[in-house]
Amino acid sequence: MTAKLIRDGSPVMLDRYELIAELASGGMAKVYLARLGGLAGFQRLFAIKHLHPYLHSDNQFVQMFLDEARLAAGIHHPNVVPILEVGASDAGYYLVMEYVEGDTLASLLARASSVSHPAMPFGISIRIMLDTLEGLEAAHGLTDDYGKRLGLVHRDVSPQNILVGLDGTARITDFGVARAASRLHATKVGQLKGKLAYMAPEQARGGEVDARTDVFAAGIVLWEALTMRRLFRGDNEAATLNRVFFE
Q1: 131 is catalytic
Q2: Boundaries of domain holding 26
Q3: Long-range contacts: 132-137, Cβ < 8 Å, 24+?
Q4: Is it the case that residue 190 has pLDDT exceeding 60?
Q5: What is this structure's pTM?
Q6: Residue in 8, 103, 156, 235 annotated catalytic
């Protein structure tokens, strides 16, 4: 994963975390590599997703983001990137996550497709998807203190949200973010471009979603990893939706 180092001569702090490098940036947040220091030279690295300042004034968005993140923080599984803290400071709202050294499946597929004979090894593709499904199952089975299922759905299973670590383990990330992001996308024309191709028809129509929605998306990801081709992507959003609905 490419990191953009933060260089301004002095530490950049977010509460007690030192921001070292920018890992990614999207319409909703920036993701930073951060360091937490302690006694006797103790140090640990984390990934921090920091909401863009312009979103702080959207109270409904912020509440949705925080509520879903709190739920997702209850997932404890080796194939899910855990949310360790939900924080707020003068600089805004942020999530603290385990830092996974590796890369997204999207980046791996892009590199694999750039060679003369594009291919992702069959066994690796299957292993990545089995790990992803294990993580999704853990999330879908999350219960409250009374044993009642919470009905948590990722809503954005895609190659961009599957991290493959240097340890060979694939982990699903960004649980607790997609539902809030759907509110942002609904108010900004064109923001769903690229994500529509991984949506189940009921989700693309704005209907009710459940665990099957995530499994459908995972199936698309696996198909694309095995064939090195896009399944539903069209030349524009309308064409993509038409393929999702009717093919």
Answers
A1: no
A2: 4-98
A3: 132/79, 132/157, 132/162, 132/170, 132/172, 132/218, 132/221, 133/215, 133/218, 134/77, 134/78, 134/79, 135/77, 135/79, 135/80, 135/170, 135/171, 135/172, 136/172, 136/211, 136/214, 136/215, 136/218
A4: no
A5: 0.86
A6: 156
